[in-house]
Design brief:
47% of the residues lie in helices and 12% in strands. By secondary structure, the chain is of the alpha/beta class. 34% of the residues are buried.
């Protein structure tokens, strides 16, 4: 019953004055664009699908009513393409396409290929035609779908969570992505940054830089988020590592 209708079409930022939807970009770029790369963010149609129907109900719908589910995903994709195009016009350098529920903890590679990839690829291709970079963010276990993520045509992938947070080994990802997309992440922000020593953090960063440099496009970064209570001094070690070995 929950999939007997498609949500009414409406602008995704309908509660904001359209003339001020992207004021934050103007403010940030006015202050730092000469020094930093400025990125926007949109969320995957699959994420909107699960948010709209609920996680259990949405995942069951993929099995019980796949065609109706795709109709809803088409709808959200159309709205997100509009949002992405508007974002491209702000002058930002890149867009992050966040897809947090597309990892192995939620769906199989087969379902990823059917319910995530086609819709994200539409958005990616649209943004790339505007000469704006766009990259995919999926947390957790994604080693079994890296090639599918790459098939979207995205400029890059993050956050390559390593074991035990995820299951991505940087060596394998670097080989797969070499010359095709940049990769970003893979530092364990819990077991390393939170609990590790300065020596352990620097050694880990150097190892990842040594591996990543061979891929032709690696950005040293924590895997997903920086764990709460990680000391600022430990985060700054990553910048020091890049200066020394990057």
């Amino acid at each position: 019953p929950m999939l007997d209708y498609i949500p009414v079409s409406q602008d995704l930022h309908f509660r904001i004055d359209p003339g001020h939807s992207f004021d934050i970009f103007k403010r940030v770029m006015a202050e730092v664009s000469a020094k930093f790369s400025v990125h926007g963010e949109i969320t995957s149609p699959f994420d909107y699908f699960l948010d709209y129907f609920g996680y259990q109900e949405g995942l069951m719908a993929l099995i019980e009513n796949p065609e109706k589910s795709k109709q809803v995903l088409v709808h959200f994709t159309a709205l997100l393409k509009m949002l992405a195009l508007e974002m491209c016009e702000t002058g930002i350098d890149a867009i992050k396409l966040s897809s947090p529920f597309a990892g192995a903890g939620f769906i199989s590679p087969e379902f990823y290929a059917e319910f995530v990839l086609p819709f994200e690829r539409e958005i990616v291709q649209l943004v790339r035609k505007k000469n704006v970079h766009i990259y995919l963010h999926t947390c957790g276990a994604i080693a079994d779908r890296l090639s599918l993520m790459l098939a979207s045509g995205a400029s890059g992938l993050e956050c390559l969570d390593p074991p035990p947070l995820g299951n991505v080994e940087l060596e394998e990802a670097a080989k797969m992505m070499r010359g095709k997309a940049f990769i970003k992440g893979n530092i364990d922000s819990v077991n390393l940054l939170l609990f590790g020593t300065v020596q352990e953090i620097m050694a880990d960063a150097k190892r990842r830089l040594d591996i990543g440099k061979g891929s032709g496009g690696y950005i040293l970064s924590t895997a997903c988020s920086i764990a709460p209570r990680v000391l600022q001094e430990k985060v700054l070690l990553l910048r020091e590592a890049v200066g020394r070995w990057g």
